[in-house]
Design brief:
With about 375 residues, this protein is of the alpha/beta class. It has 13 helices and eleven strands. Helix 5 links the parallel strand 6 and strand 7.
């Protein structure tokens, strides 16, 4: 626990930039920790792993003892060096390496940037060969808390990724990381500097939501309106409002229409989704609205059967009641029925969602949507994406 935080200029500091001087109690001097046994964990499948990567936990704050002597430390080494404990693998799955994400706002930008980057390591994340634990610290607006997070990152041997708009906070994060030997990266800094240079304008240095910034912009209210509309139009509700939608999704059950709709709504698009069910007539308005708004979703039958069976078990549906819903023959008939409807409406792009994340499917939809709005040339409409 940090007993006291002060700021001074060390000999190697940049002029005008406050550098954290960290004071530790004598019992908190860096030392090599006892080797911890690796904890076994269940193998996560691709579907659930994307959620586990965003798990986080609170900082562990030991109780401060005022009676302890305070010893100043100008440059504190890492509590342990990378490679300590090598050769002590007991054959079990290793605990994941930690990634600390620090933001002065919601942390949405940094968290999604890390998630996108982790997508490049699926080949080793699947079998836990390079397990990762991410920890998000949002709303960090004072240097004292920032220093404590950096110090905790040093204890865990973590990497620090941050989005801090205030230059003093960003400098403090960098200087503190250097003092503690924590690898760190400024996620938005290089982009902000490049834009500032291009525009010839100095950035404000204010985080989103800070006093002096109009956080409730027109785009904000547009997103709220889109989300409200999308929720009301879920699963075929209020078909008379389809003309008001920007995008209409259609497909058989469990092709991800609802989560995809919500994701697009958060970007400001009004989305409606219509389920295709054998024996249930589709609303007439679906065929009356401009066909450029409609997108079909399809999926591999084997994957769909697995998803439906899992969904039925989650809802507690008895085996005899879900025979049709998750039976392979019925699943194939369901998809064939949807395929015939798509073939009768060749202007509807059909998107294969089997191996795509929601973000990827949304990117395909928005590319086609904006290409059509700008009347750009498109590949053959009946092509599946």
């Amino acid at each position: 626990m940090i007993a006291e935080n002060r700021f001074s200029l060390l000999p190697d500091s940049k002029p005008g930039i406050p550098t954290p001087t960290i004071f530790l109690s004598s019992s908190e001097l860096p030392s090599k920790p006892k080797p911890q046994k690796s904890k076994g964990s269940l193998r996560l499948n691709l579907w659930s792993r994307s959620r586990s990567l965003r798990s986080g936990r609170k900082l562990e704050r030991p109780v401060e003892n005022p009676a302890q002597a305070v010893i100043p430390v100008e440059k504190a080494p890492l509590p342990f060096q990378a490679g300590d404990g090598e050769g002590e693998d007991d054959g079990q799955t290793r605990e994941g390496k930690s990634i600390y994400i620090v933001s002065d706002g919601t942390g949405w930008t940094a968290e999604h940037s890390v998630s996108a980057a982790l997508g490049q390591f699926d080949h080793c994340l699947v079998d836990q060969a390079c397990a990762v634990n991410t920890h998000l610290f949002s709303g960090v607006d004072d240097i004292e808390r920032l220093i404590e997070i950096v110090r905790q990152a040093a204890k865990e041997g973590a990497i620090l990724l941050y989005t801090l708009a205030d230059p003093l906070m960003a400098d403090a994060a960098r200087e503190a990381s250097q003092l503690w030997g924590v690898p760190c990266t400024d996620v938005l800094g290089p982009i902000t500097e490049a834009i500032a240079s291009h525009l010839g304008v100095t950035p404000s240095g204010l985080p989103r939501g800070a006093a002096g910034r109009n956080f409730l912009s027109e785009d904000y209210f547009k997103r709220i309106e889109a989300i409200e509309f999308t929720i009301k139009q879920d699963d075929g509700a209020l078909p008379q409002n389809l003309l008001k939608a920007d995008i209409v999704l259609t497909g058989v059950s469990r092709t991800g229409k609802t989560p995809l709709s919500i994701y697009l709504a958060q970007k400001g698009y009004k989305v409606a989704n219509i389920p295709i069910v054998i024996g249930l007539e589709l609303p007439k308005t679906l065929f009356e609205i401009p066909s450029d708004k409609v997108f079909g979703l399809t999926i591999d039958p084997v994957i769909l059967k697995t998803i439906r069976r899992s969904r039925a078990k989650t809802l507690g549906i008895a085996g005899h009641e879900m025979i049709n819903y998750s039976d392979m023959d019925y699943v194939k008939k369901d998809l064939e029925h949807a395929g015939k409807i798509f073939a009768q409406n060749p202007r509807w792009p059909v998107i294969e969602v089997t191996s795509k994340a929601i973000e990827e499917t949304a990117a395909v939809i928005l590319r086609i949507y904006h290409d059509r709005k700008q009347k750009r040339s498109l590949p053959r409409i009946s092509k599946r994406y």
